[in-house]
């Protein structure tokens, strides 16, 4: 059975049908960047898939092997699945590229895992990191997505959007995030907050940008930018019509 094409519903401002993939470098990036949008899309009948490329948290230990062996890494993977369930993600693909060390592995290896998933689910829309983020893994993820989605004949991906991740995007230098696409998440902000709370090891205390209060304030600010209560913002990278 052929999947229904992704079509924008003018009343809801989101798509109906199949075909959205979120590519995130680390566990919780998918929620921070577009959790409200994921929930909105999935509730409207869109099949949303996520890729988590990096293992997460291992870089916080002096030696990576210590982080890999730590039971908190196993718990983190359970947090990924819980957050995905809260947002309505159809399937999550989890990989173990070294945390904050994507530059130590072949770019081709990262591209190939994205291409494998992309070829399996054939998305029309991709959300991923902003190229100018402070975090090296975010930068490489963006480049790998762009490379895996070359606009050639029979490429299914028609639109690519870059999201912002608090404590990375805004801390960069001379690469300011300039959103030009906004999605109303006024009805799904509560799901975003519940999903980020599932990542117990990633939440920080106020006034850290990844505190619950700061995350909600950012959504309010982005909403205020365009006359909404809450919104998530993106930079349009490519759109083929």
Question: Would you write up a description of this structure?
Answer:
This protein is α/β, with parallel strands linked by helices and about 240 residues long. The protein has a single domain, classed as Rossmann fold, CATH 3.40.50.10320. Helices cover about 35% and strands about 20% of the residues. It contains 7 helices and 9 strands. The strands form 2 sheets. The protein has a 7-stranded mixed β-sheet with strand order 5-4-3-6-7-9-8, with helices on both faces. Helix 3 packs antiparallel against helix 6. The longest helix is centred in the first third of the chain and has 17 residues, at about 70-85. It is globular.
List keywords for this structure.
241 residues, alpha/beta, Rossmann fold, two-stranded antiparallel ribbon, 7 helices, globular, disordered N terminus
Task: Please write out the topology.
Layout: E1 7-9, E2 14-16, E3 18-24, H1 29-43, E4 47-54, H2 64-69, H3 71-87, E5 91-97, H4 107-121, E6 125-129, H5 136-148, E7 159-163, E8 181-184, H6 189-198, H7 212-225, E9 231-239
Parallel strand pairs: 3-4, 3-6, 4-5, 6-7
Antiparallel strand pairs: 1-2, 7-9, 8-9
Helix pairs in contact: 1-6, 3-6, 4-5, 6-7
Summarize it.
The protein is an alpha/beta fold. The protein has seven helices and nine strands; from the N terminus they run E-E-E-H-E-H-H-E-H-E-H-E-E-H-H-E.
Query: What coarse outline follows from CA principal-axis ratios?
Result: globular
Which residues form runs of ≥5 with pLDDT under 50?
1-17
Trace the largest sheet across and list its strands.
5-4-3-6-7-9-8
Number of helices: 7
CATH superfamily heading: LmbE-like
What name does CATH use for the topology? Answer: Rossmann fold
CATH class: Alpha Beta
Average pLDDT works out at 90
Tell me about the largest β-sheet: 7 strands, mixed
H-E order: EEEHEHHEHEHEEHHE
CATH architecture: 3-Layer(aba) Sandwich
Instruction: Compute the separation of the termini in Å.
Output: 24 Å
